[in-house]
Amino acid sequence: MPATLKKVIAIAALAVTFCCIGILFWYSEWQYSLPTPVPQQYLTVKKGELINITAKFNPQKNEPVFLHFFNPDCPCSRFNMPHFKELAKTYGGKISFAVVVITTGKNYTEESIRKKYGITVPVLFDTSLAATCGVYSTPQAVLINTDQSLYYRGNYNKSRYCTDKKSNYAQMAIDGLLASKQEVVFNQYALTAYGCSLPNCKK
Question: How far apart, in whole angstroms, are the C-alpha atoms of residue 123 and residue 12?
Fold first, then answer.
């Protein structure tokens, strides 16, 4: 085989390798650092808007409700679960927590989710809650006041693993609500959806 042909084959193989690495990086990392596309049919639910979820989830002792929108097939959701469990442990008794599983094509059950992720709070499979709360990506945190008004809908943290204490947005929202603050100011990163689009939710 001529040396020139060998060189061309080697370069082509190297290019294919780098291309595969780039695709893998895009799938596992970069795509999740971009805002989630807003679906065409999306209806905005604004802060302060009434959200009646009592038919789907009954909070304890007239407590505020914290809904964790979670997709077990979404890497961002899986990385986020330890932080959610920490919030539920810290604020349980003051706030009613629940996980809302959003996925299709998999036979997940409440028992399987509880066992796999060590969850002790209720696990809901009512996908209509996403539209009710204005959620179109996972993971997302939704905090509803005792008067059933939306207090916060957004991200947990700027860090993928929720390790940046300065951007603990969900915790800041909880603290603000418990302190009876009417207005907690968040930056755009907290309120712009990042992560995985909901199944069958296309722009």
Answer: 50
Distance, in Å, from the CA atom of 152 to the CA atom of 157, rounded to the nearest integer, reads 13
Kindly state the DSSP code that residue 140 receives in the 8-state scheme. Answer: E
Type of residue found at 156: Y
Q: Which helix (H) or strand (E) holds 86?
A: helix 75-91
Residue 197: enclosing H or E segment and its boundaries? Answer: strand 196-197
CA 134 vs. chain centroid, Å, equals: 12
Q: Percent of the chain at pLDDT above 90? A: 46
2 prior amide bond cis, ω within 30: no
Enter the pTM of the model: 0.80
Measured over all CA atoms, what is the biggest interatomic distance in the chain, rounded to whole angstroms? 81
Token look-up 């999740």 returns: 32
Cα-trace Rg, the chain: 20
Which of 173, 167, 169, 126 shows the shortest CA–CA distance to 150? 173
Would you say 69 and 140 are in contact if contact means Cβ atoms under 8 Å apart?
Answer: yes
